[in-house]
């Protein structure tokens, strides 16, 4: 495989694991805010990000390439409220989309059609992720960004405190 494509795919494994970590940080914020529905929504996102990381990981190994498991960066977010959290997620998804596109550019340049097929899936997935994060911001803005108003949305997101 093209060296640059391998490097970018390798870096993406780490970025997807960081995404999982970031979502876990957001989930934790909502747990502390007593909004368990939001917390579980973002925990599910964290699980999805781990699956993304593993897709890149498996792909590299399937191509007989190596994977370097680099340190996952600390999550340094200082969230004020639900809207702030939703915006943080949205910003991050746009960043990830840009990164995926960069890998696609390299794969196109290298005429690496197999990697392009893998990335097609991710480009579609990012469209979905951006749509979800944008909708979350819109919902919070419509309801009003305070806990009393967010209570109903929290229930809709599947939140139920443990008995
Ligand atoms: Fe992802």
TL;DR?
With 163 residues, the protein is mostly helical. The chain has helices at residues 3-32, 36-62, 82-109, 113-143, 147-156.
Detailed description of the structure:
The chain is built from five helices and no strands. The mean pLDDT is 94. Helix 1 (3-32) runs antiparallel to helix 2, helix 1 (3-32) runs antiparallel to helix 3 (82-109) and helix 3 (82-109) runs antiparallel to helix 4 (113-143). It has a single domain (3-156), classed as Ferritin. With 163 residues, it is mostly helical. Bound molecules: fe (ii) ion (FE2). Residues 16, 19, 49, 52, 96 line the site of fe (ii) ion (FE2).
Considering DSSP H and I runs of 4 or more, what fraction of the residues is helical?
A: over 70%
Give the ligands present. fe (ii) ion
- Number of structural units classed as domains: 1
Helix tally equals 5
Straight-line N-to-C gap: 52 Å
Under CATH, the homologous superfamily reads Ferritin, core subunit, four-helix bundle
- The dominant shape is elongated
Mean pLDDT, nearest integer? Answer: 94
CATH topology: Ferritin
Radius of gyration: 17 Å
Q: What is the CATH architecture term?
A: Up-down Bundle
Q: In oligomeric terms, what are we looking at?
A: single chain
Indicate the topology.
Blueprint: H1 3-32, H2 36-62, H3 82-109, H4 113-143, H5 147-156
Helix pairs in contact: 1-2, 1-3, 3-4
